[in-house]
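Reopening this ticket.

The earlier resolution said the output was attached, but the attachment link was broken on my side. Pasting everything inline this time so it's all in one place.
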Amino acid sequence: MKISIQGHSGCDIEIIDKDSNLFVRKSTKDTSYFKRLLLQAEKQKSDDCIGKNILNPNIYEIEQTDNEAYMIMDYIYANNFIDFFEHASSSQIDNFIDIFIKYIKDEYDKCEITKIDKSMFVNKFLSVEKNCYKNELLKNNNLVNTILEKSKQKFNQLPEYIELPIGKCHGDLTFSNILFSTDNIYFIDYLDSFIETPIQDIVKLRQDTKYFWSVMMYHNKYDIVRLNMIFNYIDNKIDKYFINDQYYKNIYDTLQLMNILRILPYVKNIKIRDFVLNILTSLT
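Inline output:
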């Protein structure tokens, strides 16, 4: 039995029933995405000792043929973030915050403080800018032009070298890539990041707690007032905890700007475009 489900990466996601066990098969026939999918799979597979209360699905196959790249992993019986937060107690929410903070601290412990040339940010921005003008929804848009110009100035004004903790990170740690069970949380859909720093995982989570990105991808009914209160609470707790860290304090705004900019070239409808532009206006 195979059941197709929707994903947001452009890959095909299927639930496979084999001998009464469920597995997830994530695949792509887009040859330009082969390498990236395989790197994501290897990144998830190598992160096998995340820590207490944080797990990831076991990966059993990572393969590439002439026509397809795919991976097969465990199906996890767990709640998505909406279902979890709809019923979570205050202690469960605090427990999630504690788990996340500990995860980031453990990532930090494995990092090496490294000087990053600002050209890494400038060149990444230039690549994003180029891709923006390939998107018909962004062409001849004055607001897009203004945001890109202001962003370019911000990256050009960075110090020549920026010290950052460089090590491992999930790369796309939004709520849509976290599953919640009774005792554990599971990380899925790892992503390669242009800078591998644990601060990037804070950036990605706050993409949701501050800007509600994953909520935009959710189409069922939910209690928006309750979710607003919970996300604001989580966001304030996380920011307050890390704001005393010099690296987070110095680079968070820059990384968040780059993070949201990287979404812009791939917007596919006016609603998402305007949502992203509104965030970028606040960041520039």
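Reporter confirms the inline version is readable. The CA atoms of residues 59 and 73 lie 4 Å apart. Strands lie at 2-5, 12-18, 21-28, 54-55, 59-64, 69-74, 112-117, 161-166, 178-180, 185-187.
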